[in-house]
Write a structure and sequence with these properties.
isomerase; Alpha-D-Glucose-1,6-Bisphosphate, Chain A, domain 3; globular; phosphopentomutase activity; 17 helices
Length: about 525
């Protein structure tokens, strides 16, 4: 109701253009609540005020909602999903007319409008009313055709796709992804991937996994590994339950499985998408209008590729809401945004969706792997080649669980008053600190006026430390979970190929970060467990 009122205030043509609403397969049988029911109640709210609603008639991946906003030129989009959160959760994700997630001032404006519309309107619970309304439209048939047509613009090796012997396994982890990844493979002329039978159909109980989050690593992929061994598949593609994220694993020569980190897959996709662009754009002048983006806690590998190849790289705050909005700004200025990624296995490979999209990322990864196979290269070998050419970027990220906001506040206060009031740490164990950026307070020691360039937010904690050895570490709170996360990276110039030494150095830096800055024993923090 609050969102509806806010849109009425912002769009004089809301009743002409309307909104899109999508939903995943989450349901709580004990309460009778489900994503579908919440989506229908939301549709009822808008229809009761004379606003046209494009309500998907069936479950869809999250990226279908931002795609529909831009494709049908609607005022806004709503996706009812809690992504990869535990089964008890649900959520409501909002997109603005530009096809990107909302940022300030709209987040604050909507929040205020919600406060002002707390009481349900007459017939608010009467969801059956939507079915007979002339304002209700089903975008499903059109959008599921148009989306697959649009992502084919990123298909560059159809002949290789038709011929490849490479086999893939796909899991949708009891979410919505199965059907859509099958269709994406078909659109690229790839043979369909083997689907993990126990996980391919939506199940809100997520019965085969502890957490329905492919980011958690090998635990979520146990059934995928077994199917891949049985069917002789070399590569596993795993979506989270709303199919906006993608994890990838590859069988190594040793027989072991390597699960790529979000940063490693970001490096591969960045290299691949730029290579495809370059092969199709011989005019070097066009380079000046080419951009790639990543979030500030993600690997700086795209920066290294951009520097060497001559295109632009920009970093944004954490989260695709920032990358999506920046991409839209750049596109409106006539720039080409080829790719954006964040380390939390989110990839935007196709400009038709200004958000992370695990469906297009899955099929583009499959095409890349098929192409590399014709050169007798694996994904792992190509990743090494990327690092050899642009410099090794070794990353390590993890988190601590903390349910007490006071402890979290105190931990960050201590870092801001480390050696007396308003002094940040000068070292972390044996590692000398050379720079500090605090996006909670807006302080940046590297800027002439000591003011951070990226937007700041007092409501979330985020401090980045740069070290004299070239290491960077960021500590931040999660917006959706009781976690304090950290992200660390050591970048080496091209030519420094002593990877083991770099890994050892980063491990020592991370150990020092945990011991001196997190102090898990003193603060009673719970470590991430597999």
């Amino acid at each position: 109701q609050g969102f509806c009122r806010y849109l009425e205030k912002n769009f004089s043509d809301l009743k002409k253009r309307g909104v899109v609403i999508g939903f995943d397969a989450r349901a709580h049988f004990s309460s009778g609540g489900s994503s579908k029911r919440f989506a229908r109640l939301a549709a009822n709210t808008f229809i009761s005020q004379g606003v046209p609603v494009y309500l998907f008639s069936d479950i869809t991946p999250t990226p279908f909602v931002p795609y529909t906003v831009t494709h049908l030129k609607l005022c806004a989009g709503i996706m009812v999903t809690a992504s990869h959160n535990p089964k008890e959760d649900n959520g409501y994700k909002v997109y603005w007319e530009n096809g990107a997630q909302i940022i300030s001032p709209h987040d604050k404006g909507i929040s205020q409008a919600i406060e002002e519309n707390q009481e349900p309107w007459p017939q608010a619970w009467d969801e059956e009313r939507v079915d007979s309304s002339l304002l209700l439209h089903d975008p499903y048939p059109t959008i599921s055709k148009e989306y697959f047509k649009d992502i084919q613009k990123q298909c560059f090796h159809r002949n290789i796709n038709k011929e490849t012997n490479l086999k893939f396994v796909h899991t949708s982890v009891h979410g919505v992804g199965h059907k859509f990844v099958q269709l994406a493979f078909k659109a690229f002329d790839l043979s369909p991937p083997f689907a993990v039978p126990e996980q391919k159909d939506p199940d809100p109980e997520f019965p085969t996994v502890k957490y329905p989050n492919p980011e958690e690593g090998k635990g979520v992929l146990t059934l995928s590994f077994a199917l891949a061994e049985k069917d002789g598949a070399k590569i596993i593609l795993a979506n989270d339950p709303d199919a906006d994220r993608l994890a990838v694993a590859e069988k190594q020569e040793s027989g072991e499985w390597k699960v790529f980190s979000g940063n490693e897959l970001g490096a591969l996709l960045g290299w691949w998408i730029f290579t495809c662009w370059k092969n199709n754009n011989r005019d070097s002048c066009a380079l000046k209008d080419v951009y790639m983006l990543s979030s500030t806690v993600s690997s700086k590998i795209l920066r290294a590729i951009a520097l060497k190849e001559g295109f632009h790289f920009e970093e944004t705050l954490t989260g695709f809401k920032w990358m999506g909005n920046r991409a839209r700004q750049l596109m409106d200025q006539g720039k080409a945004v080829l790719f954006a990624f964040e380390e939390a296995i989110g990839y935007m490979c196709c400009p038709a969706v200004l958000d992370k999209d695990g469906v297009s990322a899955a099929v583009i990864t499959a095409e890349m792997a098929s192409f590399l196979a014709t050169r007798n290269l694996s994904l792992s070998q190509q990743l090494k080649a990327v690092y050899d050419e642009y410099g090794f970027h070794i990353t390590k990220a993890s988190y601590f669980i903390c349910h007490d906001p006071k402890v979290i506040q105190q931990l960050f206060d201590n870092l801001r008053n480390f050696d007396g009031k308003n002094t940040y740490p000068k070292s972390c164990g044996r590692f000398k600190v050379s720079g500090i950026r605090d996006l909670t307070t807006g302080y940046d020691s590297s800027q002439p006026d000591q003011k951070a360039i990226l937007p700041t937010s007092k409501s979330s904690q985020m401090i980045t430390f740069t070290f004299a050895n070239g290491g960077v570490a960021t500590m931040r709170t999660s917006g959706t979970e009781p976690k304090i996360k950290y992200y660390s990276e050591l970048c080496a110039p091209p030519g420094n190929s002593d990877v083991e030494q770099l890994k050892k150095e980063l491990d020592e830096l991370v150990n020092a970060l945990e011991e001196h800055f997190f102090q898990p024993e003193k603060n009673n923090l719970q470590r991430k467990t597999e």
